[in-house]
Amino acid sequence: MNMINDRQFLDSIYLVREKVPSFKDFPFCLPAVSALDTLAFHPSVTFLVGENGSGKSTLLEAIAIGLGLNAEGGSKNFNFATRSSHSTLCDFIRLRKTVRKPRDCWFLRAESFFNVATEIERLDAASPPTEDNPPLAPIYGGSSLHEQSHGESFFSLFRNRFRGNGLYLLDEPEAALSPMRQMGFLSMMHDLVLDGSQFVIATHSPIIMAYPDSWIYVLGGTQIVKTAYEETEHYKVARDFLRNPGRMLSILLDQEKSED
């Protein structure tokens, strides 16, 4: 057995395959789950990439629940459910942790971040702030996350709430970020990695997945494959399109016309 890397918090996960009732049923039919045996995490950053429907978000959600985080996002102190819709996958995976304990832990789901922002406002309104129970808003930058644009609220979270020496699970953090903001996020993530943090990120962004101190797992088909950045479909498609957008548009639009 390999020695656990003492730089990280989360070493690996594995699927208890013998307990799975049927690989024909959701969520076990998803490529990311049906192909899962043991998945090791990079000490700094692990990317989960794949087509829509491959199961990367479902897998990340199960990891978050296994760590005691709220299924809709937030820290371990968040305990709310706008709609109970998480899968049962969390009951069939096991997390292999290291002896290191994160000072901070947070789960970002792009699709439900609005609900997290609403919960922060509700908690602040529910109990008057005291010295022992300070308001949450200043932790996230001072102003309400709802009073910022979607992208600015994401950036405010990264800049103000992520404290370092933490374990951060991010589901499509690029969803509200411009290309320039995605590059800014890379810089902030690097600072947090240098401060002892570990990230697991589900993403479609070829900008974000370019971070060098990382592993990229492509989820799809019958295998989970560790893949070099330049070999990912995300990189190749973005490269080919930007090299000659006119040619690519001609192919795409002619194909669409012929299908009509």
Can you tag this structure with a few keywords?
single chain; 260 residues; alpha/beta; Rossmann fold; six-stranded mixed sheet; three-stranded antiparallel sheet; 7 helices; 9 strands; 32% helix; globular
Topology, please?
Elements: E1 10-15, H1 31-34, E2 38-40, E3 45-49, H2 56-66, E4 93-97, E5 104-109, H3 113-126, H4 150-161, E6 166-171, H5 179-194, E7 198-202, E8 214-220, E9 223-226, H6 233-243, H7 245-259
Parallel strand pairs: 3-7, 3-8, 5-6, 6-7
Antiparallel strand pairs: 1-2, 1-4, 8-9
Helix pairs in contact: 4-5, 6-7
Portion in helices: 25-40%
Query: Regarding CATH, which class?
Result: Alpha Beta
Alpha-beta classification: alpha/beta
What's the CATH architecture? 3-Layer(aba) Sandwich
The total domain count is: 1
Question: How is the CATH topology named?
Answer: Rossmann fold
Strand order of the largest sheet: 5-6-7-3-8-9
- Sketch the topology as an H/E string, one letter per element: EHEEHEEHHEHEEEHH
Mean pLDDT: 82
Identify the overall geometry.
globular
Number of strands: 9
How far apart are the first and last residues' alpha carbons, in Å?
A: 57 Å
SS summary, helix count: 7
Strand content: 15-25%
Largest sheet: 6 strands, mixed
